[in-house]
Amino acid sequence: MNYRTVHVTRYRYDKPVASSYNEAHLLPRSCTGQALVSASLHIDPPCRDYRDRQDFFGNTASYFAILDPHREVTITATSEVRLQAPRRQLSFGDAIDWQETARRLAQAGDPETLDAVQYCLDSPMVRALPALHDYAAASFPAGRPLADAVAELIARIHEDFTYDPTATDVATPVLEILQRRRGVCQDFAHLAIGCLRSLGLAARYVSGYLETLPPPGKAKLQGADASHAWLQVYLPGNGWQDWDPTNNLQPSGRHITTAWGRDYSDVAPLQGVIYGGGDTHKIEVEVDVTALPEPVEL
């Protein structure tokens, strides 16, 4: 299945901005199960300096500077990806248990497992706190297969926590999310990652998009889609596996990966520095994810 994604972000400032320096993670990457067909970033007003680079995690990071005074900025990311055969997922009842996985990560000897170890460690927004260990423990008795334990943890987060866009912001600590039992996809991904890291397991944050479907008989509203977040869990010998705690499922055909890192701070869609702008500003975000017709073979 091919998808076209259009992500529009608009900033309006109370006073003129003299200049701004920005970095975006808005262009999807190619990875297992996903091929990037095309991607572009359009900035209005035009920027004087623009360049793409590959960051430490292999994502596309776009740097741009706007050096002329402005009170409004619009960043439009347009991309097309091809989702291939469903990604290989964990098999329930897999022989390797979670404790053996943690042991192999602690004694990493091969390059792939050694690379995964960085996702066992604390990161700027996710720390392996005792409270997270206590919450996770019910799903991780001794000897339980990793796939089974992760599936139950994801299901518990989905059941125990309420999706509430008003409850948190991008800086809300994971411990506060655990206490409030409310949040959004970013929060639930961070929570699951913290739980897994508290057990010595490797988990990383994934940003992207999820195609949303309108109710039967209703037209899809323009801009009604949204960016999304989930996580990946590392299983030695079987690679990285995707899990979506917001929807209690393993992503397959409708999740589009933009970037991954230790947590949100590594892959924030937009971040930067502005000079001026006053004390307040407004942000508008619109996302459209459109399934494209399959090409006709002649």
Question: Could you explain the architecture of this structure?
Answer:
Pfam families: Bact_transglu_N, Transglut_core. Residues 177-247 form the Transglutaminase-like domain. InterPro entries: Bac_transglu_N (IPR013589), Papain-like_cys_pep_sf (IPR038765), Transglutaminase-like (IPR002931). This is Transglutaminase. It comes from Immundisolibacter cernigliae. This protein has 298 residues and is an alpha+beta fold. It folds into two domains: 2-84 and 268-292, Immunoglobulin-like (Sandwich), CATH 2.60.40.2250; 98-266, Roll (C8orf32 fold), CATH 3.10.620. The protein is built from six helices and 13 strands. The strands form three sheets. Strands 1, 2, 3, 4, 5, 12 and 13 form a seven-stranded antiparallel β-sheet that branches. Helix 5 links the parallel strand 6 (162-163) and strand 7 (182-183). Helix 3 packs across helix 6 and helix 4 (146-160) crosses helix 6. The two termini are 18 Å apart. The mean pLDDT is 91.
Layout: helices, strands, pairs:
Blueprint (H helix, E strand, L loop, with lengths): L1 E23 L9 E11 L4 E6 L5 E7 L3 E14 L14 H9 L4 H6 L13 H8 L8 H15 L1 E2 L10 H7 L1 E2 L1 H13 L5 E8 L16 E9 L3 E5 L11 E7 L8 E7 L4 E12 L6
Parallel strand pairs: 6-7
Antiparallel strand pairs: 1-4, 1-5, 1-12, 1-13, 2-5, 3-4, 8-9, 8-11, 9-10
Helix pairs in contact: 3-6, 4-6, 5-6
Organism: Immundisolibacter cernigliae
InterPro entries: Bac_transglu_N, Papain-like_cys_pep_sf, Transglutaminase-like
Protein name: Transglutaminase
